[in-house]
Each structure stands twice: as structure tokens, then as C-alpha cells.
Amino acid sequence: MPGTVQPATEVLLHHGPHVVTLRASLRAAxxxxxLPGGIASVWDGIARQKLATFHAVIRASATDRAExxxxxxxxxxxxxxxxxxxxxxxxxxxxxxxxxVDQGEAxxxxxxxxxxxxxxxxxxxxxxxxWLGWPPSEVWNASxxxxxxxxxxxxxxxVMLTPGADTPEDTAAKDAQRNANVxxxxxxxxxxxxxxxxxxxxxx
Length: 204
Prior knowledge:
Elements: E1 10-15, E2 18-23, H1 26-33, H2 38-47, H3 51-61, H4 65-75, H5 80-96, H6 117-131, H7 136-141, H8 144-161, H9 168-183, H10 192-203
Antiparallel strand pairs: 1-2
Helix pairs in contact: 1-3, 1-6, 2-5, 3-4, 3-5, 6-8
């Protein structure tokens, strides 16, 4: 579970008389991941200052789509250099909000180490609307980190209200043991730690 929970990142993009708020919401994340190459390609396009990438990020994440279109139209009538500088900084800040806080961790709090981002985002939508019961509009507007934190809090509450239920840590330990058993050619449900404890008890 994330150690520090913060509201979804919002970045202001100014150009001429126009100001657009870019929000790192689940809606924007899904839209950007659905582009060719996904968010990784979007990051590369921003770094290369590709105009099409700037437009895609602005339109996907703007809280006011009409104002976003006006800003883009205004930028098209002015030299590209100034707009590219402002847009690149804002878009990089937005995409960075989707990255894990601890880059040393191999998985997120919901265990998505090998899961495509598109599936992870779909899971978060299902958690928000199904498990948490939030309206779809609230789920789409929340950030992935907010949804993860809320879902894990919900799971913790269910564990507390269900005597004898496994915690997420217990489940992860059991899954690790099953995988180790399979790799060793043993029955997945074989309790090696239990066998060691039994042997130690009888040899004591």
C-alpha cells in the first residue's frame, strides 16, 4: 500500500491568454496507454518535442477540452519554440505522475510487475466501480495512485471484518511458496516450512 497518498497531480499549461489544467487521471492514463506504443512511446515523443504528442497529451488530460483546443489553435499561429518549451515541461510533469514513487520496487501495490498497463488500468476501473462502488465519473477522474490506495484500504477493512482471512502479505507469501514448489517439481500445496518445523520438533 502506498506510504503517502496525494491528490491526482494537476499541471497548469500557459500559452498566450490561454490556461489549461492537465490532470493525471485514470481517464488520461487509459487514453495515453491506448495510443500506438503506449505511455512509453508518449514519453519518448515528449522528449523529442513531437507536436503531435504534445497535442495528444493535452487533449487526453485537459480538464476543459474546449479550452485545450483553443490553446492548441492559438499555439499554431505562433512560433513553435516557446510553445514546445512550455508544453514539454507540462507534459513531462503529467507523465511522471504515473510513475511509481519508489523506482526500486519491482511491483506496484496491486502486484502488476508483469501485467500490461492497459490491464492494470482496467483492473483499477473495476475496483473503483465494483469493489468501492464509486460512480464511473469519480473513478475516471481519480488518479491510479488514489484508486490503488482506496482499494487496498477496502481490502484491509474486509480482512479486519473477516476472522481468519489472509492478509495481502499472507497471500503473497503463499503464492511465492507455491511457485517455489512448482519450480522444484513438488506439489504446489506442499508445505516445506511446515515439514522443517515438524522435523525440528521431533529431533529436539
